[in-house]
Amino acid sequence: MIKILLVDEEPEILSIAEIYLAKFGDYDIRTSTSAKEALKLLEEEEFDAIISDYEMPEMDGLEFLSAIRDRNSLIPFVLFSGKAREEIIIEAFRNGADGFVQKGQNPAANYAELSHQVRVSVSRRKAEIELRTKEYAIEHSINGVSIIEYETGKITYANESALRMLGYSRDDLSSMSIMNFLAGSDNKDLKKKILDTVAEKDYYIGRVRVKRKDGADMDLSVSVTTLPPDDLVKKKLVFVSFIDITDIIKSEEEFLEFILETSRRIKEPVSLVGQSLESLVNDIVSGTDPETMKLRLLVLIKNIRQIVCNVNELNKAVAGDDGKVSEDNLDFLFKI
Description:
By secondary structure, this protein is of the alpha/beta class. It has three domains: 2-138, 3-Layer(aba) Sandwich (Rossmann fold), CATH 3.40.50; 142-244, PAS domain (Beta-Lactamase), CATH 3.30.450.20; 249-335. It is 54% helix and 19% strand. It contains eleven helices and ten strands. It has helices at residues 11-24, 35-44, 61-70, 86-94, 107-139, 160-166, 170-173, 187-201, 246-286, 290-319, 327-335; strands spanning 2-7, 27-32, 49-52, 77-81, 99-102, 144-149, 155-158, 203-211, 217-227, 237-244. It has a five-stranded parallel sheet, sandwiched between helices. Strands 7-6-10-9-8 form a five-stranded antiparallel sheet, with helices on both faces. It comes from Methanolacinia petrolearia (strain DSM 11571 / OCM 486 / SEBR 4847).
């Protein structure tokens, strides 16, 4: 249902308009006999569209339209007037009107056209708002977002987060290709791998190392999908979304190094424990004196305590003070 604010100084015309419009659409109509009263209604309620007469006392239709646009309101506005002078129509559209219908001798035809213009204006405005919302969401996403030409690798768009992460301006990127960012000697193979995967599956998810403007390497987690050409965009494009995981990669490397070192520190005393047990068995069989066996037992106990200590350190590093393994550590442990 479309909610309409209908404004005309003549109550009879308002009543007729309500009757006819109800025949051509599902409308919720509020009426007002003056522009000033209508402005107050707009402060109190939300409407999908406004239909207004031109000739009204105190404030005419064009002044009413200007007052609405001065409030930064983009609500669809259709001027419905018996006055069809060219200068009025031009001024109406110049001030942001969405449509104009002249009152004539055929009310049915007039109101059918009025209903059509209202529906078209409301649909167009909803589409504009939806598009602006999507554009805002992409531009201000915390993820980096870029659009790239599939064939050339040329970067055609990058949002604020992408520019901030990579350290470039939009002017910098206008003449650059994705190959300018891929770091390492195998970047051509990586590009081929990504494009081959996209061609096969229509998407790619993985990790990529790129170069910032300052020369520093940055690790990214990327997702890549294709945007097929259409009537407006003739070229095949690639949509790329990414996040900076440089710190995560560094943490993973440090974590892996810690695990390897701790494993080594566990492996060595375990090996010594095995040797000590073997020696004790031999001592018992050969009847070695008790003092020597006592010393071997002390060494064995020391190595066992070291194992326990190292295992506790590893557990604390992996699970933390609360004894629960974090999702990041769990994911990493499953990977290795």
